[in-house]
């Protein structure tokens, strides 16, 4: 059993980086022009940075769990295939 891994195209990766950069720039510009004191802008900035950090952490955790499950399935498939091969060898003799 082979699992095909499909990589993202370079245009999709570029689009993702450009989208993130544009959103970060627009957010920074909005915070800068917002009529708040410095402490209010700082509070919002810290909240936004923590939100981005936790989003990355959750995404990585979910991906790692999915890859771990895939590896466990591949190991179980290999064990099952080995058992079947051994069973067929013993049954043919």
Number of helices: 2
Strand content: under 5%
Helical residues, percent? over 70%
* Broad shape: elongated
Largest sheet features: none
The number of strands is 0
CA-to-CA gap between the ends?
27 Å
Which spans have pLDDT < 50 for at least 5 consecutive residues?
none
- Secondary-structure class: mainly alpha
Q: How would you state the average pLDDT, rounded?
A: 88
CA radius of gyration: 25 Å
H/E element order = HH
In short:
The protein has 93 residues and is an all-alpha fold. The chain has helices spanning 10-33, 38-92.
Description:
The protein is mainly alpha-helical and 93 residues long. 85% of the residues lie in helices and 0% in strands. It has helices at 10-33, 38-92. The longest helix is centred in the C-terminal third of the chain and has 55 residues, at 38-92. The radius of gyration is 25 Å and the shape is elongated. The model has no long low-confidence stretch (mean pLDDT 88).
């Amino acid at each position: 059993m082979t699992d095909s891994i499909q990589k993202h195209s370079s245009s999709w990766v570029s689009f993702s980086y450009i989208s993130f950069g544009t959103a970060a720039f627009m957010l920074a510009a909005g915070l800068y022009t917002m009529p708040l004191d410095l402490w209010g802008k700082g509070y919002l900035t810290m909240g936004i940075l923590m939100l981005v950090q936790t989003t990355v952490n959750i995404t990585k955790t979910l991906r790692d769990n999915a890859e771990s499950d895939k590896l466990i399935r591949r190991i179980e498939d290999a064990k099952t295939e080995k058992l079947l091969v051994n069973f067929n060898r013993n049954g043919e003799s």
